[in-house]
């Protein structure tokens, strides 16, 4: 009898119906006094984003809060690094984050892992068959490649947090790419095949992160080729606007992607004013939103508003 153990693939149900992107301002951490408080505030955002299968988190820079003193890292980049850290497998963190960012991640390393992400918990049903990995450079490129003098940009080796890198069976992939690996067949697979739910963008499991340095970047520089299906403003303060209240969402069958912008109106107005010359005949930021969804309980804290809003969307609509 062969000693090779056969692994039975477990089919995982799909439950994702609507995709959500969250836009949070850098004022998220304006009331924090130190790195520990900032880390805990961002951790709450990461926790709820992963819990509700959020696909993207956008950090909107509030230029009115730029500190005149010299900083090694901006507030937006700090929030971005922390958000990425929480959805990176522990065994890849030292590879993904260079020494420049590590001093800012000390408090984050002491927090619990996000249990909703499959690569941060042990998959008993398939014995850890699927793992996240980071492609690494081959140690010795082929002789033919050396003779051509071309830059070696592809590899078959994947860092999956083991003592030895995993060599792909018959694939070459770009260097420094995040991938999902079937450790039995030694092939790259989609997160959908590995984990069931396809969350994130561009074959990532978890959420995609980016910084919007301006109002234009928020809507024009997203990862979606066709843009967002619907944009919804979630006010953090009471303010009368001409934006109609949300009454319905696109049907799940259309695979919609909805942008939720959590912000005070003043923050959006300032950002729009800086880019106003790019929007001919636009009267204000209200023209970029299809609807608004006030929180069930008036709240000016983004970290508190996110779970209330996502719960409302998942139960009422």
Automatic annotation (TrEMBL):
Keyword annotations of the record: Methyltransferase, Nucleus, Transferase
Compartment(s) where it occurs, according to its Swiss-Prot or TrEMBL record: Nucleus
SUPFAM superfamilies hit by this protein: alpha/beta knot
Origin superkingdom: Eukaryota
Species of the source: Saccharomyces pastorianus (Lager yeast)
CC terms in the record's Gene Ontology section: nucleus
Primary location recorded for the protein, binned into one broad class: nucleus
Family to which this protein belongs: Belongs to the class IV-like SAM-binding methyltransferase superfamily.
Any GO MF annotation of the entry: methyltransferase activity
Residue intervals passing through the bilayer: none
Single GO BP term: methylation
Protein name: YMR310C-like protein
């Amino acid at each position: 009898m062969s000693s090779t153990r056969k692994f039975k693939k477990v089919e995982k149900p799909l439950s994702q119906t609507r995709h959500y992107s969250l836009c949070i301002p850098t004022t998220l951490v304006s009331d924090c006094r130190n790195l520990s408080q900032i880390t805990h505030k961002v951790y709450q955002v990461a926790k709820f984003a992963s819990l509700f299968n959020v696909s993207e988190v956008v950090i909107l820079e509030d230029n009115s809060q730029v500190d005149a003193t010299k900083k090694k890292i901006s507030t937006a980049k700090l929030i971005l690094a922390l958000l990425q850290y929480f959805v990176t497998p522990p065994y890849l963190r030292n590879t993904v984050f260079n020494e420049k960012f590590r001093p800012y991640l000390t408090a984050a390393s002491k927090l619990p892992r996000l249990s909703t992400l499959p690569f941060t918990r042990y998959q008993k049903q398939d014995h850890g068959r699927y793992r996240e990995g980071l492609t690494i450079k081959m140690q010795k490129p082929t002789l033919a490649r050396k003779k051509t003098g071309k830059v070696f940009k592809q590899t078959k080796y994947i860092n999956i947090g083991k003592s030895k890198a995993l060599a792909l069976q018959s694939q070459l992939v770009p260097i420094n790419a995040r991938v999902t690996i079937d450790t039995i067949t030694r092939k790259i697979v989609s997160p959908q095949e590995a984990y069931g739910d396809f969350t994130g963008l561009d074959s990532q499991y978890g959420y995609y992160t980016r910084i919007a340095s301006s109002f234009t970047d928020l809507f024009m520089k997203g990862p979606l080729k066709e843009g967002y299906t619907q944009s919804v403003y979630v006010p953090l303060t009471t303010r009368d606007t001409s934006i109609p209240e949300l009454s319905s969402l696109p049907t799940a069958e259309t695979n919609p992607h909805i942008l939720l912008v959590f912000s005070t109106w003043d923050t959006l107005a300032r950002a729009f004013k800086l880019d106003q010359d790019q929007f001919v005949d636009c009267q204000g930021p209200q023209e970029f939103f299809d609807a608004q969804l006030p929180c069930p309980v008036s709240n000016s804290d983004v970290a508190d508003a996110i779970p209330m809003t996502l719960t409302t969307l998942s139960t009422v609509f």
